[in-house]
Amino acid sequence: MKIICVANQKGGIGKSTLITVLAGALAADYSYRVLVVDADSQQTLAGVRLTNDQPSVDLEREAGTLAEPAFPYALESVGMGQVYDRLDEVSDDYDVVFIDVPGRSDDTAMIDVLSGANVVLVPVGASDAERLATISFMQLLQEISRLSREQGLDFQFFGVHSHRTNLKEEKDMDEFTDALGLPRLQASLRQLGCYKRLSTRYSYLNPAYRRAVGADASVEAEVRALCDELIARAGLTTELVS
Q1: Is residue 36 within 8 Å of 73, Cβ to Cβ?
Q2: Between helices 128-150 and 168-180, what is the axis angle to 10°?
Q3: What φ, ψ does residue 164 adopt, rounded to 5°?
Q4: How far apart, in Å, are the Cα atoms of 66 and each of 41, 59, 81, 108?
Q5: Alpha-carbon Rg of the chain, whole angstroms?
Q6: Where is pLDDT greater, at 242 or 191?
Q7: CA distance linking residue 121 with residue 147, whole number of Å
């Protein structure tokens, strides 16, 4: 089981979007057994499932048209201090776990969750506030990485653009983080309206869903590129991929 934490101490930077895009595709299209743990006190992902997805599931179930399972991956709300107790209980049930955490990174529970992950994905942005918060956070991850290497633990972290706009500031951010030796994924998500209509039920690799949210064919290519790079970088087994 690979544990992937999606975190940044700056709020509103695309954590929930990144998780829903990756979890939906890896579960529905790559055949991984996926669990999403919503440990953020805002409960964004749990709210999306309850508000956006559950009503249609209930209607289909009542009409007898629901194809089980209703959702491609499991989603659980777990307190920060109980995350790894819960994962110990289900370690044989899943191939990939995504953890959504709060924005703050200055408490012991957050450090513990980050340190226990195999991979931390850090959504990055181009504004001054986003840059400062991201750089500070990734420097913290550098220290966790150093300690993990000393203990022989599997730990990696990567910056990833979750709403790229191709502004000059984004190129500057890439060059700056590269100069600091902070790793990042080459694949990214653009700032598109389709990603604002979050669902925990459908994958953006599903043509019918892409049409429903107004996504063009290029969305499939960027989502698949992001999944493929994460699989390679995180060392996920490819034996399960359909």
Answers
A1: yes
A2: 20
A3: -70, 140
A4: 31, 8, 36, 43
A5: 17
A6: 191
A7: 18
